[in-house]
Every structure is written in structure tokens, then in C-alpha cells.
Amino acid sequence: MRGALLVAGTTSDAGKSVLTAGLCRWLARRGVRVAPFKAQNMSLNSMVTADGAEIGRAQVMQAAAARVEPSAHMNPVLLKPGSDRRSQVVVLGRPVAEVDAMGYGEHKARLREVVAASLARLRAEYDVVICEGAGSPAEINLRNGDLANMGLARAADLPVIVVGDIDRGGVFAALYGTVGLLEPEDQRLVAGFVINKFRGAPELLAPGLAQITALTGRDVYGVLPWLDGLGLDVEDSLGLDAARAAVPPREGQGTLRVAVVRLPRISNFTDVDALAAEPGVNVTFARTPGDLADADLVVLPGTRATVSDLGWLHERGLAAEITRRAREGRPVLGICGGYQMLAREILDDVESCAGPVEGLGLLPARVEFAPDKTLRRPTGEAYGERVHAYEIHHGIVAVEGGEPFLDGCRTGAVWGTTWHGALENNGFRRAFLADVARTAGRAFTPAPDTDFAALREAQLDALGDLVENHLDTAALERLIESGAPPGLPVVAPGGPGHPSLNAPAGSRSR
Predict the structure, then answer these.
(1) Residue 303 sits in the same domain as residue 328
(2) Which residue in 199, 326, 356, 418 could disulfide with 226, CB within 3.0 to 4.6 Å?
(3) Which pathway, metabolic or otherwise, does it act in (predicted)?
(4) Contacts of 221 (CB under 8 A, 6+ apart)
């Protein structure tokens, strides 16, 4: 089998990332050399490849599903928002600019060449490439500069399937409207649909499937049922609550309550997934001081806007509550940006350009932001356990006291580190949680056999099972190998007979 396919969605968080991963695992299990690809990703969840490139965490998860090593070419353009209007542009794993929405347009011509080259390289190296779109292809205000949806599909002649989330309602309108809003040239690449997150009576859904096929002339390739307990890496905070709700607390000896502060620019919140996988550990997200009241451990996670989010902590009263708890000897863990907030002083002339800012003063450290971003995959030791992790930060922390803790430090019940992913190391995680429980005075013993990597592998296999058991895989094979079927009808928002159906393609506004 050789070819490629683009998975688009009716909305963000419709299921593009997990369907792409499921397709990758299904093909990999059949012995197909497959790779994921997302041309342009906007996400604060990222990871570092073996050669030191930063890419979206979802593409790393999809590479694991494909059983291949992740590469910068799988996500050549990554946008990391630092505010509502500005983002850092990461190209082939390296930051190149800070831009607003209008300024980003000046980079599009070059980025289009980068995207095309990366996709061509993957297609030469692998039998199949499963591409993931971004947001929705029907964002008509963005079509002219599109790199990841129909712009990519048209440039590379990719067949497209559109996935819709039935759990949020209105899925048939979303599927029809998505196709109907596209230009005729784009519509001819949209081969059909997949419905995601279905939990109901199949016989009630069947008439709708028949009608959407009749209305659009496109097949429904299958219906994926709702599956509890996936909790796979989500791209941004839109999917954070749903992902956590999908991972119910596992029973164990005692209970340890963990509150993760939901920062406005929270990043790499996948760091706490391994905690949520532990039996007896209940993980919640906190926005107010009251949310921290019964927590045994407070986690300050990573952030793309350290100084701004530190200000938010003060405004919400969270800073005072975290400080009070720490001085009472109640455990606090800071990771990357959260660690920086715990320092005595932050000097930032790079990210926020705020200059010197007073930190929470809970750790004996000073932070200075550097123009160059640190991107690496370090190894170390803590609690006598080997730790593998990754680093993504501009802030350089100078430790001025305390006990060593990975690359950071510990003072009393406060820990800080720049290392992401450390909690995925089973031995270290258990030892850390046991220390937290002792410090918090909780009767909690970590389970001796929780293997986070094995749990993730089982989740990826569950995605592959969903594809194999609920989608028309024979039709998908034909689509990958042969492209979109010829003669697909053009659908107009007004339905059959709409005047625009008969208008010359060039007469439509773009």
C-alpha cells in the first residue's frame, strides 16, 4: 500500500488527532510503514525529538502509534501562543519569530515551501502518510493562506475525510456545512465522513447516515463509539477537561489529591497524565484558592507566559494561597514555567519584556530569560531512580541553595524542575509520590506495578481497534491508494438547486 490521506474536522477537538493516531496504529499493525503529519499546529503542548527539535505533542503520540521515531518533518510549523494576539513560530523544530496574526502572513510563502518539502520527504521515506488538518477546513476567512487543510490537500492532491463529534450535537449540520462552504475545487477532494464519540442506539442514527450520504453524495466510512479512559495527549486546553474527565480515578491504597493550577497559558499539562494514571491519585484542575483547599500536592505546570501567568496567580489570590501552604509545609511542585514562578526573582527581557519581576520566593533561585530556547532530552537521577525527560524553555534558572532535585532544587515541601516528562518514569514517580504522601501526612502507598508506557501503548492499541472494528477499512485503503473518487458532486450551502451550483467556479469570491 502506498499513498496519503488528510483527516479534517468540523471543529477543533472533533477527533482529528485520535483518528489520525488510530489510523497510524491500524496500518502499523498490518506491517505498513506509516508516518503522521501535521503541516501547521497551534499548540502549547510540545515535546523534543531525539535530535533536539520541538514539535507538537500530538504528533509525538501519533508517531508512537505508528511505531516510528518522531521527527520535525511530522510537524514542520508549530505556533505557540504567548497571548491572544501573538505567537512564537517554530519551524522545523526551531523558533524563528514572534508574530501577530497579520505578521504571520508575511511568512506564509516560505512556510508553504517548508510544508511541501517535509511532506514530500515523508512520502518518500514511508509507504503511507496520514495527515491531520487544523481546526476546520471551513474557516473561509483563512482559506487563502491555508497551509494545513484544503490548501495542503489541493497542493498535494490528498483525499480528505471529515470527522465530526456527535457528542457535542449538530453533527449532520456540521458535516454538510463543512462541505458546502468549500470551493468546488476543494469539495472534489472531500471523499466522505467519520462520526466520532457516538453513545446511543445505532438504529436511531442509521437514517441520518443515509440522509447525509444522499444530500452530499459522500459515504460515511463509519461511526466510532465513545470510549472511556483514553486520556491521550490533547493539543491544547480546549480538550483538557474532556481528556481528564475520560480518565476516572483508579482505586488504590489510600488517596492522594493533586490540584494542578489551570494557568491561562498552561503548557505541557500532559506532565500530570502519569499522576492521573496512578491508582488512588485524584487529579483536578484549579482556578481559585478554594480549589486548592483539600489538595495534598499543588502542581504549578508549564506556561508559555511565565510573567503574565504569575500576575494572574496574584490577581486570583492563588499566589497567596500557594505561598501560605508552602510555608506550612504542604507540598508544592513547580515544573518549567511553574518552577520559574517559585524563584525569588525573574528577569525577563525576552518573553514578556517586563524586566525584573519578583517571584513567589519559595525556592532559592533566580531566573533570567535567554534569547535562545533550550531544547534537549536530559537524563539524571533522583530518589535513586533513573529519570529521562525533556526541556523546552527560555528561562535559565540559577539555583542558589536548597537540595538538588533533578536539574532544579527542593526546599522543605517545595520542589522545582525544568524537566518535562519526569513523572512518566515509573520508579521516580512512585518515589516522589511516596515522599509527597509522607510530607503531607497521608496514608498513601503508590502501586508497585503501574507502568505508564504500557498504559499508553494499550490506549494506542484501543485506537487501532476502533478503526479496525468500526470503520470501512477496505474503503479507506482504496482512498489512500487511489485518491478521492472521481465525480463527487458539488454541495452548496443552500442545498440542491442553489444558484451557486451553476455559477462558474472563477466567479465565486475567495
Answers:
(1) yes
(2) 199
(3) Cofactor biosynthesis; adenosylcobalamin biosynthesis
(4) 161, 192, 193, 194, 471, 472, 475, 476
